[in-house]
Every structure is written in C-alpha cells, then in structure tokens.
Amino acid sequence: MTQPHSFLPIIRAGIDTYRQPVVYMREDCHLCRAEGFSALTRVRIEAGGRSLIATLNVVTAEGWLPPDTAALSIAAWNALRPERQGVQAEFSHPEPPASTSAIRNKVFGGKFDAASASQIITDMVAHRLSDLDLAAFVTACAGDRLDIAETIALTRAMTDAGQRIDWGTEPVLDKHCVGGLPGNRTTPIVVAVIAAAGGLIPKTSSRAITSPAGTADTIEVMTPVDLDITSMRRVVEAEGGCLAWGGGLDLSPADDILIRIERPLDFDSDGQLVASILSKKLAAGSTHVLIDMPVGPTAKVRTGAAAEDLSARLSAVAAEIGIELRVHCSDGTAPVGRGIGPSLEARDVLAVLRRSADHPPDLRDRALDIAGALLDMGVPDGRGRQTAETLLESGAAEAKFMAICAAQGGFHEPGIAPERAIETAGRRGRVTAIDNRRIAKIAKLAGAPGRQTAGVLLLARPGDTVEPDTPLYEIHAETPGELAWARDYARAGTSPFQVEAEK
Fold this sequence. Notes:
Low-confidence stretches: none
Largest sheet: 6 strands, mixed, barrel
Oligomer: single chain
Strand order of the largest sheet: 1-5-2-4-3-6
Distance between the termini: 87 Å
Radius of gyration: 24 Å
Shape: globular
Number of helices: 18
Catalytic activity: thymidine + phosphate = 2-deoxy-alpha-D-ribose 1-phosphate + thymine
InterPro entries: Glycosyl_Trfase_fam3 (IPR000312), Glycosyl_Trfase_fam3_N_dom (IPR017459), Glycosyl_Trfase_fam3_N_dom_sf (IPR036320), Nuc_phospho_transferase (IPR035902), PYNP-like_C_sf (IPR036566), PYNP_C (IPR013102), Pyrmidine_PPase_CS (IPR017872), Thym_Pase_Put (IPR028579)
CATH architecture of the largest domain: 3-Layer(aba) Sandwich
CATH topology of the largest domain: Pyrimidine Nucleoside Phosphorylase, Chain A, domain 2
Pfam family, one: Glycos_transf_3
Enzyme class: transferase
Keywords: Glycosyltransferase, Transferase
C-alpha cells in the first residue's frame, strides 16, 4: 500500500532546463528526509497514469517554492503532462537503468550489439539515464571508438525511438553538411532550387551544437521552423519542400539528448555523427542523400584521409539501412560567405537568392554544386548543375523560397546588431588563411547563436592584399558587454586572419 508521505502536489517551476527534466524541492521537505533524496538524486514521478524520471535540485532559500511542494521544470512538466497545477504526484526511487551495464562495458573497451544499443537509446529517451551516464556514453564512443556494426546498431536504435515519415513516393531528396565551416549556409538555397525543379525535399535541420549558427537557427530568422509533422506535410504537399527544425518533430529524439551533452563537451565521435545524420534522414523518409563534407586544417574534417574514413563509414551504414548516399567533398580551408551568425548568414542567403550584385560568390557556387549533384541523383542526366543555375538566375528559386516561408508562417527580413566593431590588419601582406575555429569562437562570444543578430561579418577573404589598418572583419553584438567580451578574446591571441608578407 502506498504511503502518504510519498505524495506531493506539483506546480510549474517556469525554469527552462532545455531537454533535461528537473524537479525542485525545498531542503526542509518531508519527502526529501523520508526518502533520502538529495541534490542530483534521480527521482521517479508518477501522476495521471504517466511517469517520468527527473533530476532533483534542492532549493535552500525560502520564497518562491511553498513548503512540501515539488516544482517541475518546463521539460519535466511537458513530459509528464499533469492535469493541472497542484495535482498530487507520487515520488519514489527509480530502478537502476538496464543499460548502465552496457555503457560501463563500452567505457572499458567492450562492444555493444543491437539489443544493448536499443536498450541504451530506450533508457536515454525515457530519461532514465543521468547526465553523468550520458557523458560517459558520449566519451566512451568519442573519436573512432565505434565500429561499423555498432554504428549501424546505434543508427537503427535511434531511428526506432521516434516517429518515421513515409512520403509514399521516391526519390525523396535530402542533404546534410558535416559542419565545422562557419557561414556554409547552402541549405535554404538548395531546398529552394530542388523544390523549384519539381523535386521533393522535406528538409529537417538542427540547431547549433558547437557552431555560431545551425541551419535551423539561420532559417528561423526568416520564417518559423518549429513545425510538427502535420504542418510539415502540409508545407511539403503545397510547395515540394520545407525548412523545419528536426528537434520539434520527434524524429530520432535521442539525437537531441546527445546534442545537449555534446555541446558543453565540445566533441562528438565519427560513429555518433554518422548515426545522428542517418537516423534523422531515415526517420524523415529520405531516400537519396548528399553529404557535404568540407575538408580543411581547421574544419571538422581536417585531412583527406579523415574524409575517406568518414565517407566509407557513411556509405556502409547508408547501404545497410537502404539510403542511396553520395559524399561531396568541398573546400574547408575558410568560412563561406561573409556572415557568421544567424542573421548575418540569412542576409547572405537572401543576397544569393535575390541575385544581388554584392552576393557572396563562394556561397552561390557551393549551393549550386550541391543542388546540381542532388538533381543528378534524382534524375541522372548530368545536367543538374545547369538546371540549378537556370532556376536560380531566373528567380524561380527565390520565388519558391518565399512560397515555402509563406507556407511555414510568413517571411521576416533579418535584422542587424546595434553594437559593431571592426578589427583591422596589423601588417601589409596577403591573406592566406582564416582560422575557422577561432573566427567561430569570436562569433559565439559575441552572442551567436542565442542572440540572432550577433556574429562576425568578414570584410576580407583569402587571396586579398591588405595594408596596415585594412578592415578584416566586423564583430556584431546586441549588448556592449558581449561586444567587449568578443573583442577581448579576438585581441588576446593570434588573429584568425593569417597575413603573409608578399615577396
């Protein structure tokens, strides 16, 4: 028989903990004493026939939380879906997750199979694993510690944990960039071109993990991206394509949990990268996928050998799960376009679609290369690049992009940051390289992607000749403090622009 002391009324805490369910109790709560709950204890909460496992945070100050009451974070409240504020919930210690032994085995160099991969992902999505468990799993899989069989098992488990979309036709085209190259915002242009050509491209994208902007962050500056599957189908049926945030669609939900852990750790693994990409493509119903893989000394993929290894892993897993895949290796030695950060990248995208005289030519060329290759995957006549260019130059791609935005909820022009400062060259010479990682760090310190108009605007490119005090880049921020923080970092070390004296 359930004891009365195991129940507490629950209320909304109104605290955003991203996707981590958190419960708040006062330190003098009778339940904390009776059950031995302490800070960071994993707690099982049951109400209205639904249950949830959350992490306990103990409140030491009186005031906002009434005595003998539990408050749920936004993620916990949305997962439990109580009938109302103040409903009684039962609290208990959860059973140890079944997958912890599989994670421990992996930490010590073992392998996991399909069954243990499924159990890990099931426990992950059910929030049975603590952040320490998740960090251990991510770390144990880092680098090349997942073999092909484990990567396939993880991909399938991640796909099976969420919803899947069947479009009822082929080909369903898609593309993905492995990342590491600031400003490489080809997706909106590619989607517009493919949809204008009559192709089907229901594009889902992620938000930033370790970059100054993810594709969804940039598109959200111009149009809503938080679509559910019903809305996504409506947009795709009307326009042939969409530009949606994948995190709102319950497609491979474990990926969003792993992203939350990978973001502060600032690393991932080849196997998890492949599983992340392909599980979402499979869940989204994609049949033909092109992978853009920038290769450069400061990109995510740094060498040709690393690109070959990652390409082989992607191809092997794609073949096993029934996706036709092509890898497009591209130049990753410098950022693409001029803008780094959501609004600045959106402005570059619009300049290309609108055929503006000052559009960034490198972004235009990359987008057309990818769109052309995708068109050739769907209709292999070898004229994809030519078709893509015609659709862009005729204005058909711009019109299609605006139609997609209208179907998703309307179009908004990107804004510009109120605080800006220019950084200049310190010597005469030729710009030979731009450090992708360092320029991205400056943009993030300025506030990107959380501050939509923050970031970096590039004013010089590799190959340019500069004089002392020639503007190299402009930092954009929404507050004076963030601008100062970014400038301090930019000036504290080596410049992201490598300038060599001309002979």
